[in-house]
Amino acid sequence: MAQMADNTPIFPEPGLFVGQVMHARLKPKQHKFTYSVFSILLDIDRLAETAAGVPLLRYNKPGMFSFHDRDHGARDGSPLRPWVDRHLAAAGLSEAGHQVTLLCFPRVLGYVFNPISVYFCRRADGTLGAVLYEVKNTFGDQHGYLVPIGRDEPLPHRHACDKGFYVSPFIEMAMRYNFKLTPAEDSYSLVIREEDKDGPLLVASQTMARKPLTARNLLLTFFTCPLLTLKVMGGIHWEALFIWMKGSGFNRRPAPPADDVTYITPAMTPSPGRQPSFSQADSA
């Protein structure tokens, strides 16, 4: 992590994060699965520089591991920075655009599927000013949720919003997300509790620890988490089969939202005294 002259941390450096993903369906019948994953944390202004310094990692080129602009943002191959800046400005959060890092799965042997990627948007003093969750479904659609982060907001960050994007045929659209986030620095944790009018329906979490982003560590993850995103995509469909066999109803896919990002305002999130409990999420 970079530091100021007085050793105060500023921004997390690019890194490799290794850990687990957990999904737990709570009703109408319980179902849970866990699998090992790894992600890379990249500064969107230093993508070419970072890839040049890490053998085995390529930027917008084929390789064992690679990052491509067209997998994120506008998804047309254009640089990510203008896309992020445009949405920060539209939400009145330009101050948070001093440095932006992205945590996501890399392409492995040319293939990637990122159910959720997270942009950490920081102010000039290094404090987190906004988080942009970039969500994809298996139908090729993508939607973002941009959340402001208060300067004095305690960790873990907690926020909530209504569901605005179709993800699973086994979950209806009238849902609400509750997020609990510890940003990607030495470790990373994200818990999402999805609930309907009667309470929690699904809990999903990512918990990962940082390692140096080196060719050696990438190679080790290739063997400990082989064919990462093929496993993720295969796991999603395999688990969907089990959920369907347990009797979950099927919901038709609506048209994607007209806007590619939903801007979450403070009024849409719970106040500090009304934060949602995550005891069920943490124990699922």
List its salient traits.
284 residues, alpha+beta, 11-stranded mixed β-sheet, 3-stranded mixed β-sheet, 5 helices, 35% strand, globular, disordered N terminus
List the helices and strands and how they pair.
Elements: E1 15-25, E2 31-43, H1 47-52, E3 57-59, E4 65-67, H2 80-90, E5 99-104, E6 107-108, E7 116-122, E8 128-136, E9 142-148, E10 157-162, E11 176-182, E12 187-196, E13 199-211, H3 215-224, H4 228-245, E14 261-263, H5 279-283
What does this structure look like?
This protein is of the alpha+beta class. 18% of the residues lie in helices and 35% in strands. The protein has one domain (15-283). The protein is built from 5 helices and 14 strands. Strands 10-11-12-13-1-2-5-7-8-9-14 form an 11-stranded mixed β-sheet. It is globular.
Q: What's the tally of helices?
A: 5
The major sheet is characterized as: 11 strands, mixed
Give the H and E element order.
Answer: EEHEEHEEEEEEEEEHHEH
Determine the N-to-C terminus distance. 33 Å
- Share of helix, binned: 10-25%
Cα radius of gyration in angstroms: 18 Å
Global structural class: alpha+beta
How many domain units? 1
Strand content: 35-45%
**Low-pLDDT stretches:** 1-10, 271-284
Average pLDDT, all residues: 85
Total beta-strand segments:
14
- Lateral arrangement of strands in the main beta sheet: 10-11-12-13-1-2-5-7-8-9-14
What gross morphology would you assign? globular
Summarize the structure.
By secondary structure, this protein is α+β, with helices and mostly antiparallel strands.
